[in-house]
C-alpha cells in the first residue's frame, strides 16, 4: 500500500477511545470578550498566542517523517525534493510534517480547527493531552471545524468508539461530509458524528471572528479559516500547503496527495501571493510547530518565516486584507 493509500485509508479508519465531561453549548458574544477569560497555559506541546483580543493555541498532536526519495511515502518528485531540502539546509533527506490542530476561544465558543490523526499513521495522538495541558476538557469544545476528510484531520474526532468532543458541533463543507458518508470504511465514524454534523459553505461566519475560506484542490471541499479580531487576522491554510519548504518554495510542483492537482497549484500560488501582498499571518497545520508565521517573497521565490524566527516578518499585520 502506498503512503497515499495509507493516508487515505487512515482517514477512513476509526480509532478508539474517548469521552469527556459536559458543558453547555456555547452562545455568541462579541469578539474581544475572551480577553477576560483565563489565559491558555503554554507548555512544550501548547503554543499559546493571541489573534487581536482572541486567545489561541497551537496544540501538538504528532509528526510525520517522510523519506524524500521514497515515492511511496513522499508525494513530490524525489530529485526535485532532494534539491529543495538541501537548499533549505535539511540534511537528512526527510520531509518533516508536524500535526497541530488550532484552538481558538471566541467569546463563549471554544473552537478546535481539525481534530488530529487520533494516533493513525504511526502518530503519537498527543492532541488529547495537549488540549488538557491548555486547560480545556474535551467536553468544553463547542465546535470542531474540519478542513477536509483525511485521516490526520478527522482521525481524532472519535476515541474508544465514542465522540472525542461530546458537546461539539462538527462543522465541515458539504462536499467533505459527502466524502465521509459515501466511504464504507468510515461507516462507524459517520454513525457516531451524524447527529453532530452541520455543513457550511465558503464565506460562512462560524463565530463572530471565524469565517470559512474556500481553498479547493487538495480535496473538493477543502476549507481554510480566517480568524479576525480588530486589526489582526490569521489564515488557517489546512493542506493547501503541506511543507514549509517544498510547498512554499515550489508551489507549482505536483503533489500526489492533491485530488485536483491543477486547482491545488492555483490555490497554493494564490495563497502565497495574497499572503505576501497583504502581510497575512498564516497558520500551517503541518508546518514546523507551532506553525505560525508569514510568507516572504525574495529573489529566489517564496519562503516561510516562522513567527519568532531569525528573519523579520514581512509586512505589517494584514489590516488591508479583504
Ligand atoms: Zn493533512
Automatic annotation (TrEMBL):
Entry GO MF terms: hydrolase activity; metal ion binding
Per UniProt, which keywords does this protein have?
Answer: Hydrolase, Metal-binding, Signal, Zinc
Signal peptide location in the record? 1-21
Q: Which Gene3D superfamilies match?
A: Ribonuclease Z/Hydroxyacylglutathione hydrolase-like
Q: Does the keyword Cell cycle apply?
A: no
Matching CDD domains: OPHC2-like_MBL-fold
**Domain Metallo-beta-lactamase: where?**
98-286
The record, for PANTHER family, names: QUORUM-QUENCHING LACTONASE YTNP-RELATED, QUORUM-QUENCHING LACTONASE YTNP-RELATED-RELATED
Q: Which family would the database say this protein is a member of?
A: Belongs to the metallo-beta-lactamase superfamily.
Protein name, per record: Glyoxylase, beta-lactamase superfamily II
Amino acid at each position: 500500500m502506498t503512503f497515499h493509500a495509507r493516508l487515505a485509508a487512515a482517514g477512513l479508519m476509526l480509532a478508539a477511545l474517548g469521552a469527556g465531561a459536559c458543558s453547555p453549548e456555547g452562545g455568541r458574544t462579541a469578539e474581544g470578550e475572551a480577553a477576560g477569560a483565563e489565559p491558555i497555559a503554554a507548555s512544550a506541546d501548547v503554543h499559546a498566542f493571541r489573534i487581536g483580543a482572541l486567545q489561541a493555541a497551537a496544540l501538538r498532536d504528532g509528526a510525520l517523517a517522510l523519506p524524500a526519495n521514497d515515492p511511496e511515502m513522499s508525494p513530490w518528485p524525489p530529485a526535485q525534493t532532494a534539491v529543495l531540502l538541501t537548499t533549505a539546509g535539511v540534511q537528512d533527506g526527510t520531509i518533516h510534517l508536524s500535526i497541530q490542530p488550532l484552538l481558538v476561544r471566541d467569546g463563549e465558543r471554544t473552537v478546535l480547527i481539525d481534530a488530529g490523526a487520533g494516533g493513525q499513521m504511526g502518530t503519537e495522538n498527543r492532541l488529547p493531552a495537549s488540549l488538557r495541558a491548555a486547560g480545556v476538557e474535551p467536553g468544553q469544545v463547542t465546535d470542531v471545524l474540519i478542513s477536509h476528510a483525511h485521516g490526520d484531520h478527522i482521525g481524532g474526532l472519535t476515541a474508544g468508539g465514542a465522540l472525542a468532543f461530546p458537546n461539539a458541533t462538527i462543522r465541515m463543507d458539504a462536499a467533505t461530509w459527502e466524502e465521509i458518508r459515501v466511504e464504507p470504511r468510515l461507516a462507524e465514524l459517520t454513525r457516531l458524528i451524524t447527529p453532530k454534523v452541520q455543513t457550511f459553505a465558503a464565506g460562512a461566519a462560524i463565530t463572530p471572528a471565524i469565517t470559512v475560506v474556500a481553498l479547493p484542490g487538495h480535496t473538493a471541499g477543502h476549507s481554510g479559516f480566517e480568524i479576525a479580531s480588530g486589526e489582526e487576522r490569521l489564515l488557517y491554510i489546512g493542506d493547501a500547503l503541506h511543507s514549509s519548504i517544498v510547498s512554499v518554495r515550489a508551489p507549482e510542483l505536483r503533489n500526489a496527495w492533491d485530488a485536483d492537482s491543477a486547482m491545488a497549484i492555483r490555490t497554493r500560488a494564490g495563497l502565497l501571493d495574497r499572503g505576501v501582498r497583504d502581510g497575512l499571518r498564516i497558520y500551517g497545520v503541518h508546518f514546523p510547530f507551532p506553525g505560525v508565521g508569514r510568507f516572504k517573497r525574495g529573489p529566489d521565490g517564496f519562503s516561510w518565516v516562522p513567527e519568532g524566527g531569525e528573519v523579520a516578518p514581512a509586512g505589517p499585520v494584514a489590516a488591508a486584507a479583504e
